[in-house]
Amino acid sequence: MKKSTVSAALAFTMLLSGPAVLLQPVATVMAADASGTTASISTILKNQQSDGGWEKDYSEDSGEWAKSTIDNKATYSEIRRLATEYKKTKDSKYSAAAVKGINFLLNMQYANGGFPQVYQSSGYHKHITYNDNAMINVLVLLDEVANKKGDFSFIDSTLASKSKQAVDKGVDCILKTQVTVNGKLTAWGQQHDSSTLKPAGARIYEVPSLTAQESVNIVKFLKTRASNAKIAAAIKGAEDWFKASQITGIRVEKKSGDVVVINDPNVKTPIWARFYEIGSNKPIFVGRDGIVKYKLSDIEKERRTGYAWYGNWPAK
Q1: pTM across the whole model
Q2: What is the rounded CA–CA span in Å between residue 271 and residue 266?
C-alpha cells in the first residue's frame, strides 16, 4: 500500500489485481452487480425512486430489497452514469436525476457519518455497512462531487459544500468505528451497529468480527485524506494489524468442486482470512448454523465454496 497521501480524485486499485489500475469504484468480490451497472440510461431514469435512490434489482417490487440501497454498486453507479451522460449530451434531465441521487445519499447518511446498506430499513440492513465496500464507494463519489471532479464539474457550490461535509463526517465515522483490542487500534468489521458503532453481524454466517478484505479499502481511502494525528494512527494501527494477521505456510485450492486448505511450509507468500475473531485474532469460519469454527473444513461445503474465506487483499 502506498504510504504517501494521494489525490482524492484517484480511485482505488482492483482487489486481487496485478499492476495498479486507476478506477473509480472499488471492485466488489463474489457479488452480483446491481441493475444500474448495466441498464440503459432510459431504464435508469425510469427506475429512480421518489427518494432519489435506486433499488439493487429493478425487478423487485416488495420487501427490503425494493428500497433504495448502496448494496452491490446500486445508486452510486446510476449517479456516475447519469453524470457521464449529461457531460456527453448536456441534457438537463440527466444532471437533474444525478443531483437528486446525490441528495438522496446525503439524506441517507446517519448523523454519526455512517451509511446503512438500505435506506430506512430494518435488521442488519440498517447497520453502517463497509461490506462489499459500500460506504467507501459512496464516500469516493461524494468526494469527487465535493471537488467537482471529472463528470461532476456541473455541480453547484452548495451541493459541493454539503458533499464535503458528508465526506468529513464519513471519515469521522471510520475513525470511531475502528476496533481497539487491548489498547491497540486494529481493523473494522463488515458492518457496525448504527448506535453503538461496534462490529455487528449480518447474514447468519457473518458474525461480528474483524474483516481483512473491507479494511484494506478503508485504509486506502484514509490515505487520500489530508493527514492528521488520528488518521495517521488509524492507518498505522490497521497496517500493523494486517502484518500481525497474515498467514503463511498454507495453500487454499479448489479441488473437485470443493475448497481445501493444504499445509505447505514452503509457502512464504502471505494470505489473510476474511474474518478474524475479536480478541483472539484467530481466523474464523461460519456456516449456516451460525456457529464459529476455526477450520474451513469444519463448515459445510456449500459455504466453503460459496464465500471468499481467504484472499490476498492487504498484500499491496
Answers
A1: 0.89
A2: 14
